[in-house]
Amino acid sequence: VCSGMQLPVAMHYYQPIWTLVGAGAKTVASSGRPTASVMPSGVKWVKAKVQEINPDTNTVCTDDGTEISYEYLIVALGLQLHFEKIKGLPEGFEHPKIGSNYSVETVGKTWKALQDFKEGNAVFSFPNTPVKCAGAPQKIMYLSDAYFRKTGKRSKANIIYNTSLPVLFGIKKYADSLWDIVKRRNLQINLRQNLIEVRADKQEAVFENLDKPGETTVFEYEMLHVTPPMGPSSVIKGGPLADEAGWLDVSKENLQHKRYPNVFGIGDCTNLPTAKTGAAVAAQSAVLHRTIRKVLKNEKPDKTYDGYTSCPLVTSYNTVILAEFDYNGQPLETFPINQAKERRIMYHMKADVMPHLYWHGLLRGLWGGPGPYRKMMHLGMK
Ligand code: UQ1
Fold it and tell me: Quick check: keyword Transit peptide in the entry (predicted)?
């Protein structure tokens, strides 16, 4: 009932054949399919938005005024983007030279800004909130660098990554590789810088220094990529299912709600203390399946989630660092090779294999993450 795995619908659905043969570029349209085409049979699909969940009466209210009661509830509401928390946005997107890969409405503007780029600063932001896909804000920087080099514009560009975080990446093993790359490619990293305002008419972006309250810096830009602040679904936040910060309060071991045992959660809407990614959802889906099967039989959940998450960091047109790690921030790599190295094979995994795992595996409940394959590939190793 509360499935948040809804995809943009008013789009084209079939992948042109050239995107299947490793030609590189893909269309925005190929990244979405209509919900109807991925709806499993035997499901009653309610075409309305969830407005309120009341776990004390086991009911869900939708925006068309319907009340639906449930015996068990799985909450998968995702998270919300908050462009409006940056002064000057979202209306600033009406000006050129600014884009964001986080919305289907603004991703094309990133590409336009790249193509139109002549000279100046290319500025990339990372907000001061939890985010989904924490690698994406810097992947677009690496791709921009590659594009500028290919088109002979690199010597005219200052590439600047302003992040709210005190680190380039949360897991040291991968951060070390990424620092090597940014030094080699002359990409400027500024830590603890948070985007608070965009003056799109003047092509200025204002950042606050999170370590020096009150200190702000204005960056002129020829191109700006915005990663918006994000937060919990307004359906959950402040309600009985939320933790203090507003996220769905579930057990980090088995995804069952901490106070309402007939409620479960998966994905970005939860307070699971791991990075919010599609790969994490895959691993969580296997645990959740097992937990619910047990609960339906009045047995205790047994399978536990280790926090597995993964981030294929695209570092150029044909290389990826495939970061994989768990709740403890320990690398948990699937393949018996050092995945902190930039690799072409991992690029093909990301670009040519992952979409099939997503559409045919994850959405059909057949892909529960790479855990079993990791164990197989590490047989006989420590
Ligand atoms: C994954 O399972 C997954 O879900 C389908 C992704 O898409 C969002 C991924 O990007 C990754 C990396 C995984 C993990 C899978 C393997 C084979 C390492």
Answer: yes
- CATH number where 102 lies: 3.50.50.60
248 and 202 inside one domain: no
In a domain, 382, yes or no: no
Structural domain harbouring 149 = 87-228
Contacts of 298 (CB under 8 A, 6+ apart): none
Cα–Cα distance, 131 to 231 (Å, whole number) = 8
Tens-place pLDDT, residues 341-372: 999 999 999 999 999 999 999 999 999 999 99
Residues constituting the chain: 382
Rounded Cα gap, residues 20 and 42, in angstroms: 31
Measured in whole angstroms, the distance separating CA 351 from the mean position of its chain's CA atoms is: 16
Q: How far is the CA of 132 from the centre of ligand 1 (A)?
A: 14
Q: What is the mean pLDDT of residues 132-156?
A: 98
The binding-site residues of ligand 1, defined as CB within 6 angstroms of any ligand atom, are 278-279, 282, 310, 312, 334, 354, 357-358, 362, 367, 369-370
Domain boundary (228, 253, 284) is at 228
Q: What is the pLDDT of residue 8?
A: 37
Whether 365 is in a domain gets the answer: yes
- Going by alpha carbons, the residue nearest to atom 16 of ligand 1 is 370
Position 253 in a domain: yes
